[in-house]
Write a structure and sequence with these properties.
8 strands, two-stranded antiparallel sheet, elongated, Fumarase C, Chain B, domain 1, Fumarase C, Chain A, domain 2, two-stranded antiparallel ribbon
Length: 463
């Protein structure tokens, strides 16, 4: 039995959490989800940094500080993970999750010192583990640290995908195919140009994400309840950043305006927006791959994806673009997560945004699934893509858009008539031009040079 200001409550005997966590566990049986590992790691890291800081300033008995640090190290090494039990959909600001962390560390620290769970002697969850902290500066700091911790894996995945697309761009550079706009035949493009462009799109997204992440390095820890720093010693913010920087190996900065950093979740929202933009581009690329592989007899069939699993429970031999389909679904989820982050960030009031738990959950979830989907797309799809050069040439030869190369010579109107006639007679543009005697020999070959059409210049006038 434990007691808090609301009264007594039984807590499971084998639990490291305490009464406030137990109340939250009973109050919020919402999703059956647990806090994501990045959220736990970030909060526990803050608690460890605080113990290191207070030991350094002499505010906390070194024996108690060392016990808290040891307990935190156990969690950061992967221990006691089943003790973090508060549903992501919980009371505002994240007080329940913060107290879950405080109680677990206090109980474990007391065990290390020979005490018993639930007695909170000599280490108390509020007085010692939470010293100079408030949920209101711990959770926004944890959102920033958690996102920065997940960033390297995401960056690495994007780099691999970009390399895979660029490699295919080089390999496919000699394959000329029909371009398509509005899903209608358009002027020629090289398959390699398409894949190189995909690689550059991923690289630009990676750079955009990195720029947005830089603002997350400003930490408001030390703001305590409303950003003013009540109950925190003057040296506390700088020391916290020093210890967190050493622990995370991240470049971090002490926020210049801790009231602002507590009021606004604009930085995490902007970062979520960069993830959303990447998801938009990635989903579009995945859809392109599905179009280009469509067939194999009644679609474009310009590329072949690695076969990763049977595609139908009823149609033998069918193989689907399973990996791009998965990527599309992940991208849809990230778009929804960003809507949640954005609307939750807008819901802040005065000195605090109480919607931080759902922001943390959706932001970290987006990073996790984008990282995994990006890596799988590179590893199990793009790196194994093959081109069907004959099929690309087949469609290109039949494209009426090739008349565009004739427009500078015969005018737009006459070229349009040729396109319509080629379609009506079911002949190629080259056949029709030869039939009409419009161009012959070298001039014909120069103007209707398909590869040359994929480069800057006027047909027939290139040197």
């Amino acid at each position: 039995m434990e007691r808090d200001p609301l009264g007594e409550l039984p807590v499971p005997a084998d639990a490291l959490w305490g009464i406030q966590t137990e109340r939250a566990r009973q109050n919020f049986p919402i999703s059956n989800l647990r806090p994501l590992p990045a959220f736990v790691d970030a909060c526990i890291g803050i608690k460890k940094a605080a113990a290191l800081t207070h030991r350094e300033t002499g505010r906390l008995d070194p024996k108690l500080a060392d016990a808290i640090i040891r307990a935190a190290d156990e969690v950061l090494a992967g221990g006691h993970r089943d003790q973090f039990v508060v549903d992501p959909y919980q009371a505002g600001a994240g007080t329940s999750h913060n107290m879950n962390c405080n109680e677990v560390l206090a109980n474990r620290a007391n065990e290390l010192l020979g005490g018993k769970r639930g007695e909170y002697k000599p280490v108390h969850p509020n007085d010692h583990v939470n010293m100079a902290q408030s949920t209101n500066d711990v959770i926004p700091t944890a959102i920033r640290l958690g996102a920065l911790a997940l960033l390297p894996a995401l960056t690495e995945a994007l780099a691999r995908l970009a390399r895979a697309f660029l490699a295919k761009g080089s390999a496919f550079d000699g394959i000329v195919k029909s371009g398509r706009t509005h899903l209608q035949d358009a002027t020629p493009v090289r398959l390699g140009q398409e894949f190189t462009a995909y690689g550059h799109t991923v690289e630009r997204s990676s750079a955009r994400i990195a720029r947005a992440a830089d603002d997350l390095r400003d930490l408001g820890i030390g703001g305590t309840a409303v950003g003013t720093g009540l109950n925190a010693e003057p040296q506390y913010p700088a020391l916290m950043v020093k210890h967190l920087q050493a622990m995370t190996r991240q470049q971090l900065r002490a926020g210049q305006d801790r009231v602002q950093l507590m009021q606004s979740l604009g930085d995490p929202t902007a970062f979520s927006g960069a993830l959303r933009t990447y998801a938009v581009d990635l989903g579009r690329i995945a859809s392109d791959l599905r179009l280009m592989v469509s067939g194999p007899r009644t679609g474009f069939a310009e590329i072949v994806l690695p076969a990763v699993q049977p595609g139908s429970s009823i149609m033998p031999g069918k193989v689907n673009p399973s990996i791009p389909e998965m990527v599309n679904q992940v991208c849809f989820q990230v778009l929804g997560n960003d809507v949640t982050v954005t609307t939750a960030a807008e819901a802040g009031q005065l000195e605090l945004n109480v919607m931080m738990p759902v922001i943390a959950h959706n932001l970290f979830f987006s990073m996790m699934i984008l990282t995994n989907a990006t890596r799988v797309l590179a590893e199990r799809c793009v790196e194994g893509i093959e081109a069907d050069a004959a099929q690309c040439a087949y469609w290109l030869e039949r494209s009426p858009a090739l008349v565009t190369a004739l427009a500078p010579m015969i005018g737009y109107t006459e070229a349009a008539k040729l396109a319509k006639e080629a379609i009506a007679k079911n002949v190629t543009v080259r056949q029709l031009v030869m039939e009409k005697g419009l161009l012959k020999g070298k001039e014909l070959n120069d103007v209707l040079d398909l590869r040359a059409m994929t480069e800057l210049g006027v047909p027939g006038e290139r040197k």
